[in-house]
Specification:
The complex is a heterodimer of chains A (233) and B (256).
Chain A (H helix, E strand, L loop, with lengths): L3 E14 L5 E14 L3 E5 L6 H9 L6 E8 L2 E4 L5 H10 L1 E4 L11 H11 L4 H14 L16 H13 L5 E5 L7 H17 L2 E5 L3 H7 L2 E4 L8
Parallel strand pairs in A: 3-8, 3-9, 6-7, 7-8
Antiparallel strand pairs in A: 1-2, 1-4, 4-5
Chain B lengths: L4 E10 L2 E11 L4 E5 L6 H8 L7 E7 L5 E3 L5 H11 E4 L3 H4 L6 H11 L5 H14 L16 H13 L5 E5 L7 H17 L3 E6 L2 H7 L2 E6 L2 E7 H6 L4 H8 L5
Parallel strand pairs in B: 3-8, 3-9, 6-7, 7-8
Antiparallel strand pairs in B: 1-2, 1-4, 4-5, 9-10
Helix pairs in contact in B: 4-5, 4-6, 5-6, 6-7
The chains are: A alpha/beta (233), B alpha/beta (256).
Chain lengths: 233, 256
């Protein structure tokens, strides 16, 4: 039997904009979704339907208004909605990864160290972590001359590959992917497709937003349409 | 997990003004808590209360010592509280002059806390001081120079070395990057980030700079008029602020 990695039930997210006369925006409600090990669930729905919001709610940087998100963490289900910050940080350190669309650049930190960091945080020796980072950056065709530079001045596609390397350097049991191939050329898109399929084969549970039909077809196990949970206006 | 610091209903008044209104939270080992808010919100007053430098009007602050004993820091005698602060805590001031002895050499500034906790071997102390200067990226050749000859960024890094040399478990920081220009600030932030990770420090950081908070803090407390208006995981508070004041604060940051 495959392990259920993520169980989302009755999830609702509403934003209240206090600076705009307390305007309320209902993104979704009563949303249910389960994701098993080895699956890649593609989030569907047009732009503005709440795909990224759902992703951020799972990662914990958006706070759901209602409902439950349970993740299989260190052998047990852990509730993320309303969890203490140190619980969420521990889940992120060991179980839950997130490749966002944009890289948050840290001043003065080199590309190699940004990519190696998640492994070092887990206790991998620094030399070994950097070696793994080199292998991954080479696979993603990032020119070696860039590895010792902070990525602040890189192009969008280069930053995105740094971000992808950081997300795939360790094998997260649950991995969220927000448009990981958006600014990549065909060759690098193929590399990312291969990385995703390897993660699935290892038993990771993935949830992704992919703009590209080709990528969706190559990695998706099924599609989950977020639009159906929009409030009937 | 036993909290390192357990704060309950801490209240402090300046006359009729409530600078801290029933503040409570737990700090766990290895956590970095950021306290943000505008000038006058009470964040520095709270930091001084927590660090044993300003006795609150009411409320308790319990600290779990290295030996596992939990103490109410304001029920300790003055001498005992000072001893605790010297041996287990650090305090980094916004202005390096407030945390350094300007008439003493750089090496003396770093070596002095070691002597205060009982080190007597001159060569060892000098060696340790030189090693800490290097860690905070000050050339070891400057060990016999006074901080008056240092730039603002160097003075701040020296203050950090002086605070960390004794291996504290908890460090309080009051706007540590406050008066520094942007490139110097980036260097200091990167340094503090690395030290916090490598030494498994717990820290409470007061700042008005949300970017600094995002980079260093695991969780954030937003203060306004002496009260905590929002409290949570740093990226959650900054990406999905719930309180009207936090929304104003986050939307007021200049984008580059």
């Amino acid at each position: 039997m495959t392990t259920r990695m993520l169980t989302i039930s009755g999830l609702a997210k509403q934003f209240v904009l206090h600076l705009q006369a307390s305007q309320r925006i209902d993104v979704f409600q009563n949303l249910d979704l389960t994701v098993d090990a080895g699956e890649c669930v593609v989030l569907g729905g047009q732009s503005g339907s709440g795909k990224s919001t759902l992703m951020r709610a799972i990662y914990g940087n958006y706070k759901p208004t209602e409902g439950s998100i349970r993740i299989h963490h260190k052998g047990d289900p852990v509730e993320l909605v309303g969890a203490e910050p140190h619980v969420i940080l521990d889940v992120r350190r060991t179980t839950l990864g997130y490749v966002s669309q944009f890289l948050r650049v840290i001043p003065r930190v080199t590309t190699l160290d940004i990519v190696a960091e998640p492994l070092i945080a887990l206790g991998t020796p620094e030399d070994e972590a950097r070696e793994r980072a080199r292998i991954l950056l080479a696979r993603l065709n990032l020119p070696e001359a860039l590895w010792s530079l902070p990525p602040a001045t890189f192009s969008g596609g280069e930053q995105q590959r740094v971000n992808i390397a950081r997300g795939f350097i360790r094998h997260y049991p649950v991995l969220l992917l927000d448009e990981p191939t958006a600014s990549l050329d065909k060759a690098n898109r193929e590399v990312v497709i291969a990385l995703i399929n390897e993660a699935k084969a290892r038993g990771s549970a993935l949830v992704g937003i992919f703009h590209d039909q080709e990528v969706r077809d190559a990695v998706g196990t099924r599609t989950f349409d977020v639009t159906q949970y929009k409030e009937a206006a | 997990m036993t909290p390192l610091l357990s704060v309950d209903a801490v209240t402090f008044r300046y006359g009729k003004t409530l600078a801290c209104d029933r503040i409570g939270f737990d700090l766990h080992p290895g956590e970095v808590l950021g306290i943000v808010g505008e000038s006058g919100s009470g964040k520095t007053t709270l930091l001084n209360c927590l660090a044993g430098r300003l006795q609150p009007d009411s409320g308790t602050i319990r600290y779990t010592r290295a030996n596992g004993e939990a103490v109410d820091i304001y029920r300790l005698g003055e001498a005992e509280r000072r001893f605790l602060a010297r041996t287990e805590w650090g305090f980094v001031h916004q202005t390096p002059r407030d945390g350094l002895r300007m008439g003493v050499t750089a090496g003396g500034n770093v070596g002095e806390p070691l002597m205060a906790v009982g080190n007597r071997h001159y060569e060892n102390i000098r060696h340790e001081a030189a090693s800490w200067l290097t860690k905070v990226e000050i050339d070891a050749d400057r060990i016999d120079d006074r901080p008056t000859t240092f730039s603002g960024g160097m003075q701040q890094r020296l203050q950090i070395a002086r605070n960390l040399v004794t291996g504290p478990r908890l460090v309080f920081m009051d706007e540590p990057t406050g008066g520094l220009d942007v490139s110097v600030q980036a260097r200091l932030l990167d340094l503090v980030r690395g030290l916090v990770r490598d030494l498994n420090l717990s820290a409470i950081l007061v700042t008005h700079d949300l970017a600094v908070a995002r980079l260093l803090a695991d969780r954030l407390m937003v203060m306004r008029r002496g009260r905590v208006v929002e409290h949570g995981l740093t990226d959650q508070v900054l990406d999905d602020p719930h309180d009207a004041y936090t929304q104003l604060l986050v939307s007021s940051v200049l984008q580059t």
